Known about the structure:
By secondary structure, the protein is an alpha/beta fold. The chain has a single domain (82-318), classed as Rossmann fold, CATH 3.40.50. It has ten helices and eight strands. It has helices at residues 3-8, 26-47, 52-70, 138-149, 179-192, 197-214, 230-241, 257-262, 283-288, 307-318; strands spanning 82-88, 92-102, 105-114, 121-127, 153-157, 218-228, 247-251, 295-298. It has an eight-stranded mixed β-sheet. β1 and β2 (92-102) form a beta hairpin. It starts with a helix and ends with a helix.
Amino acid sequence: MGVFRFIALLVVFPAFSIGGSLVNSPLYQHLLNQAVQRLDERKAEILSLSGPDAYQARGEKVRASIIEGMGQFPERCPLNARTVWTRDFGDYVVEGVIFNSRPDFPVTANLYLPKQGEPPYPAVLGPCGHALEAKAMEAYQYCWINLARRGFAVLTYDPIGQGERLGYLKEDGSPDFWGTTEHTQLGALALLLGHSFARDEIWDGIRALDYLETRSDIDKTRIGCTGNSGGGTQTAYLMAIDPRIRCAAASCYITSLQRLFETIGPQDAEQNLIGQVARGIDHADFIESQFPNPVLICCASEDFFDIRGTWETFREAKK
């Protein structure tokens, strides 16, 4: 087995374990030792960089590597976007939007529009974390309403397996399972097809940006992105991949791969990019690929994403 594939297994096994139980196994520790060696080589490469041009060149390299690890994106299809309802809440308006990210593959979304200021408005893309309600989760609504009241348009959308996009239903229409469980099921199928489930989630986000660009009331030059937990994962990927995102705030996701591997291991199918370690891609690369655009890291001291890794990543990216 080649070294590339061997190290790649490190980020595949934990996704199918229960509670990261493989972390203490001899095989996992063997793979971890190889991963740490590759991550150390990455650190040496980062230290050798000098000047803005070098950082931007590495950002392009990282961007291409992430896309390759996801398994390449499908071709763009017509969005077939439509607004299915509109509600006025006094100081902001919400539109219910549906667009196709792939042929006959609808994405359900809400677009929050401010009533203060004049269009075109600066916009924020709001990918959701692993809540069953997804875009309708109360805490997320508070965030989007807060932004809309401050003059931002916000497009938030349901991830696959959440909100209005549940794929595994019982006869009575209730979910058989959802969220991370559905993502793991779909992630296993995606690996058999040669790509990561992250590709499917992130493609929805890229097409959401495409939709924002179709709107005359949106300022295409001022688009940001923010999300929490699973939404933080998507934010990290999107800000690294899509240059249309001019600023970003990733919440409760950013740590470092070494700390992640030494604690709970990667948890969800979308966290596993094929060959990520072998390619020398760490969490800091998601941030550094945004250079020279600003990035805010939001974190919590008691989160299961180890905050020690968050500090390590922050210190590297800040340099």
